Amino acid sequence: LAFRLTILGSSGALPAIGRFPTSQYLTIQNRHFLIDCGEGAQIQMSRFQVPVNKIDHIFISHLHGDHYLGLMPFLFSLHLNKRKDDLHLYSPKGLDEIITLQLKYSKSALNYRLIFHPFNPEAITTLFEDDAMTVETIPLRHKLECAGFLFREKPKLRRMNKDRLSEGLKLQHIVQLKNGEDVFNDNGKLLYRNSDYTLPPRPSHSYAYCSDTAWNENMIEQIKGVSLLYHESTFMDADEDKALETKHSTASQAATIAQRAGVKKLLLGHFSARYKKLEMLLAEALPLFHNTELAIEGASFTLEE
Amino acid sequence: LAFRLTILGSSGALPAIGRFPTSQYLTIQNRHFLIDCGEGAQIQMSRFQVPVNKIDHIFISHLHGDHYLGLMPFLFSLHLNKRKDDLHLYSPKGLDEIITLQLKYSKSALNYRLIFHPFNPEAITTLFEDDAMTVETIPLRHKLECAGFLFREKPKLRRMNKDRLSEGLKLQHIVQLKNGEDVFNDNGKLLYRNSDYTLPPRPSHSYAYCSDTAWNENMIEQIKGVSLLYHESTFMDADEDKALETKHSTASQAATIAQRAGVKKLLLGHFSARYKKLEMLLAEALPLFHNTELAIEGASFTLEE
Q1: Chain B interface mutation, best of A45, A63, A69, highest count of B Cβ atoms under 10 Å
Q2: Which of B71, B72, B51 lies closest to B61, judged by CA?
Q3: A100 in contact with B at a CB cutoff of 8 Å?
């Protein structure tokens, strides 16, 4: 499962029975990320068998309580479970101070190191990069400074064509071929033509997490063509005035963004507690963007290799 | 239901599947109290139909995360649900700072007034008093400054004997009789002898909540004869070394305290996540104190009038 998203919470600010506030678990090529961490996120991680000790990076979109108040209890549980590995926290300014103050009053020193990466939610910033992928912020429009996150795999290596494996192939040749090169011998004679021995790389996937936001055309360019877009849809069209007032979006606004950005799939979430039947929100999005699903608790979305 | 306790969480610091961290709802003569508020307390309040808007006083025993990290989400929900009434918070020093900092970073001003009452957990202090009852701290022995709470009804008025109601009785006479006085006319002639017209008052109940504590003989005097004692019992006898190390109690220590304090009933709680079957903890307490029950999620204890 090279690229898989699991929804831990689908609720807006007020908890609705059976729904939890926003939190998502994302794994990409054996990297494990937590995105937002509302109250009870650790209960949901346990329920959906998230390998919590493998999570090394946590991204918090903004400091409204429903997006981060599950973090402190989760950090304490990791401590009690004897975590040793560094844990990286990415968030707008303030979370470091909030956590440090609570550690002070509990007279606790964690067993592991917390590394804070405060970011400016108003600019596109690369928060994480390694050989396989990047994570950058997506500036959003909300009552409080808020950013989404864009997870993007880098281009992958070409694959060896198993039908054309030759006995003479050495490890160094395979490395060259996977990198797209032809292989020559010391005398400059062509040994293996790349196109004869390799297949195109597997597709590189991307996930745009657009947490709390009002209608926001500015981000369309940045998220163009992503494999998967999560866009909040707190309200239905009939409550569009509430969306305007609270700087949230309707399901049809989310679908319009998905359509205009040409994404492959759209997930809706952050539902207002006023809606008992979420199918009604889905029904408002589907005519505008066909490949839409509800991001409800326990739902899992795998992008195929 | 003049005096009723409902258990919202029974778990120790690490959450166990199906258990929630410590929180209790107590109602006494139409006063509504919340005692500790671990993560997810508001989920449990909703599940067990606690009238959250009637809660005007919240008591926090200490600032370990499993006893207060459900408070901030609960405060935000009260705000979103348009609470207007003042809310009183009693806790060791620090909670005011923690809450104020989180409100600052969420740029929220609550609709209602939060009134902080920091207390010194090392001394017996009366935190609340009105015409019907008092609440005082119970100093405990834990890794972090920690106090329990003793809720005590004041002596009640005598009751009118319904078999002896006389037509001549005026409201002022009834008030005098309920207060234990005889009633005379203006000339000093005895009209109603108290013992002829009234019955003894109903019993006054008391509840001692002894949150996280190591073995603590000091509190026996203070909680002597209470109607109901909640005493943490994080561990079984076989793990007594863990109890010593973490400054918690075993079930048999809790039962010994109950027995020596001559309480009427004992409740056990704050169970370590290592125990799947809580009946084993109960079994260790019962031989030492017969009237013992497990304080598990949803359990409710009513003291009869």
Answers
A1: A69
A2: B71
A3: no
The pTM of the full predicted model, rounded to 2 decimals, is 0.94
Complex ipTM = 0.92
Evaluate whether A243 touches A216 at the Cβ level (below 8 Å).
no
Q: Tell me the C-alpha distance between B142 and B134, whole Å.
A: 24
pLDDT tens, residue order, chain A (305 aa) = 699 999 999 999 998 888 999 999 999 999 999 999 999 999 999 999 999 999 999 999 999 999 999 999 999 999 999 999 999 999 999 999 999 999 999 998 999 999 999 999 999 999 999 999 999 999 999 999 999 999 999 999 999 998 888 778 889 999 999 999 999 999 999 999 999 999 999 999 999 999 999 999 999 999 999 999 999 999 999 999 999 999 999 999 999 999 999 999 999 999 999 999 999 999 999 999 999 999 999 999 999 87
Q: How far off is chain A from B220, nearest CA to CA, in Å?
A: 27
Tokens 């505008």 -> residue: A288
Is residue B158 within 8 Å of residue B179, measured between CB atoms?
A: yes
CA A252 to chain centre: 22
Q: Please report which residue ranges of chain B form alpha helices under DSSP H.
A: 41-47, 65-68, 71-80, 95-105, 171-178, 194-197, 240-246, 251-261, 279-285
Dihedral of the alpha carbons of A179, A183, A188, A189, in degrees to the nearest 10: -150
Q: Please check whether residue B214 is in contact with residue B233, taking contact to mean a CB–CB distance below 8 angstroms.
A: no
CB nearest B101 (choices: A13, A40, A101):
A101
Asked if B250 contacts B240 with a C-beta cutoff of 8 angstroms, the reply is yes
Mutate to test the interface with B, among A14, A17, A37, A39 (most CBs of B within 10 A): A39
Q: What DSSP state is assigned to residue B181?
A: -
* CA pair distance A35, A31, nearest whole angstrom: 13
Are B251 and B285 within 8 A, CB to CB? yes
